[in-house]
């Protein structure tokens, strides 16, 4: 076990390249129990509360004045109670207690099955020279997982000071937070908390590597003792041939980054995206299609949804996209790297995908990339069909929104009948786009008109779209609803949606023509 630590730390860049940085969006509001009221609790509690979470401090003496002050500092929704009572009310439990009492604390918290347990503890023995060394075998993180096998333990926040947790900007640069755990969805949730605090989460494997992360603390702490303080910043290696840097766009629509459970649409089609950004898994016995990702960090939420459905994320074989805008493709390069999937796209969007959006017709020549470029393995044209595991997906070129904007059709079986499925890219017009005089896309008005005419001729049984709001997902489905593909049979809604976007197009076209 110790050899693994030495090997990993000696080649940390390689470990980072394999693991991948997690740029994960904010998670939906959860109740978080922070067990303990010391420095780590004082740091994490207010930070998590600022992200919209309800905080309950678990204390042996919740009426103590210092605890009252901490609750007041944390905010109006914060409270304090006994440790077991706090844990019982929370979905996430933080063990902000000394490392040598963790076992007793855990054993007295009650049933922790299904809860996310965040372990920021650092077991250590301090020698006469002031240097730290291992105090437990194999690690606290692994032991906690053994003590509560039904919980989802994530090791995190143990390689920095509490001051850094409160204000990462004081370090003068980015700070990485390595995390380990066996549950992908739990790690995505913790990564979202870390990202929301202004830190950089990085997944370095399952809980069996907790001793590596605890070893990173030993090196960090010993360097401070020796007068050589540092913070961890682990920079991911770029994909071979890809552009290393890009300018992240501000995400102003919270629905783009709000996690949403996977939805079984019909047959072998599943929605695995966020609350508003549509990402679609089409499963087959020989591997899967993934159509669209989402904004920055969406790959980790998509992975969690795919695995929650019981499918292997690494079985994704084909990547497709309905449009080459960053809010739908920012995770493609990472998913391609993780799965080895092939990237296929309409030829009209290839340039933008491969240069990170810098050649998008809306941006001036020479503009910076806005997402990580992804290499396209095969260029597609209208009518091309991609076959995998008995499912044949056909691309329909519907330009206007982007030059290579695409919709996809295929047939699926469910309950003894065939369903014609359409994943349609709506002809919406982004702010700032002109229909007349668009220098880098002079034929845009004609393309939109062609797209509306083509889409009105389609008669799908089931249709979904690039945004959940485009096909009224949240009117048709609520979390917890039983599977029923009939809810997505909506021919009238399809025609109304196409016609509504066409009317917006005609209105803007008329206004631009009258202004000339």
Fold and architecture overview:
By secondary structure, this protein is an alpha/beta fold. It has helices spanning 2-10, 12-19, 39-50, 65-74, 83-88, 102-107, 140-147, 162-166, 184-196, 210-225, 298-308, 326-329, 332-339, 347-354, 444-456, 473-476, 491-514; strands spanning 31-35, 54-58, 79-81, 92-95, 116-119, 125-126, 132-133, 152-155, 176-181, 200-203, 263-266, 269-271, 280-284, 287-291, 316-320, 342-346, 378-380, 385-388, 391-397, 406-414, 417-424, 462-465. An eight-stranded mixed β-sheet has the order 3-2-1-4-5-8-9-10, sandwiched between helices. Strands 11-12-13-14-15-16-17 form a seven-stranded mixed β-sheet. Strand 4, helix 6 (102-107) and strand 5 (116-119) form a beta-alpha-beta unit. The longest helix is centred in the C-terminal third of the chain and has 24 residues, at 491-514. It starts with a helix and ends with a helix.
Quaternary form: single chain
Outline, from the CA principal axes?
elongated
Please state the second-level CATH architecture of the largest domain: 4-Layer Sandwich
| Parts with pLDDT < 50 across at least 5 consecutive residues | 1-28, 239-243
Mean pLDDT, nearest integer?
A: 91
Strand content: 15-25%
User: Which structural class best describes the helix and strand composition?
Assistant: alpha/beta
């Amino acid at each position: 076990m110790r050899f693994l630590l030495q090997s990993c730390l000696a080649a940390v860049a390689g470990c980072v390249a394999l693991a991948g940085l997690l740029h994960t969006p904010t998670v939906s509001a959860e109740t978080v129990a922070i067990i303990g009221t010391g420095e780590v609790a004082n740091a994490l509690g207010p930070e998590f509360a600022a992200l919209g979470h309800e905080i309950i401090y678990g204390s042996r003496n919740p009426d103590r004045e210092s605890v009252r002050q901490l609750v007041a500092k944390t905010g109006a929704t914060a409270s304090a109670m006994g440790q077991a009572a706090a844990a019982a009310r929370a979905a996430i439990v933080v063990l902000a207690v000394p490392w040598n009492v963790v076992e007793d604390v855990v054993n007295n918290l009650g049933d922790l099955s299904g809860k996310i347990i965040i372990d920021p503890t650092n077991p250590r023995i301090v020698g006469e020279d002031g240097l730290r060394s291992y105090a437990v075998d194999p690690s606290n993180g692994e032991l906690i997982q053994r003590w509560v096998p039904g919980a989802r333990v994530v090791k995190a926040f143990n390689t920095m000071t509490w001051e850094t947790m409160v204000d990462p900007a004081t370090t003068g640069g980015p700070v990485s937070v390595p995390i380990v755990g066996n549950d992908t969805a739990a790690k995505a949730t913790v990564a979202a908390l870390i990202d929301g605090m202004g830190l950089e989460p990085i997944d370095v494997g399952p809980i069996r590597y907790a001793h590596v992360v605890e070893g990173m603390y030993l090196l960090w702490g010993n360097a401070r003792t020796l007068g050589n303080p540092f913070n961890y910043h682990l920079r991911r290696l770029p994909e071979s041939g890809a552009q290393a840097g890009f300018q992240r766009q501000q995400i102003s629509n919270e629905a783009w980054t709000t996690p949403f459970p996977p939805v079984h649409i019909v047959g072998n089609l599943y929605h695995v995206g966020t609350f508003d950004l549509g990402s679609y898994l089409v499963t087959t016995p020989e591997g899967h299609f993934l159509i669209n990702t989402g904004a920055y960090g969406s790959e980790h939420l998509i992975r969690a949804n795919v695995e929650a459905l019981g499918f292997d994320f690494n079985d994704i074989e084909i990547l497709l996209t309905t449009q080459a805008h960053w809010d739908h493709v920012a995770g493609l390069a990472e998913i391609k790297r993780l799965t080895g999937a092939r990237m296929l796209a309409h030829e009209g969007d290839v340039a933008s995908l491969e240069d990170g959006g810098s050649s998008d017709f809306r941006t001036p020549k020479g503009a910076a990339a806005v997402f990580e470029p992804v290499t396209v393995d095969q260029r597609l044209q209208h009518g091309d069909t991609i076959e995998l595991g008995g499912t044949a997906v056909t691309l329909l070129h519907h330009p206007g929104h982007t030059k290579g904007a695409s919709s996809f059709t295929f047939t699926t079986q469910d309950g003894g009948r065939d369903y014609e499925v359409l994943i349609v890219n709506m002809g919406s017009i982004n702010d700032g786009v002109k229909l007349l005089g668009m220098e880098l896309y002079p034929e845009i008005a004609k393309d939109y008109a062609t797209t509306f005419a083509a889409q009105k001729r389609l008669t799908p049984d089931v249709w979904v779209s690039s945004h959940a709001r485009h096909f009224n997902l949240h009117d048709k489905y609520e979390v917890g609803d039983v599977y029923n593909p009939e809810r997505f049979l909506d021919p009238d809604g399809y025609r109304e949606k196409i016609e509504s976007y066409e009317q917006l197009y005609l209105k803007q076209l008329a206004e631009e023509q009258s202004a000339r």
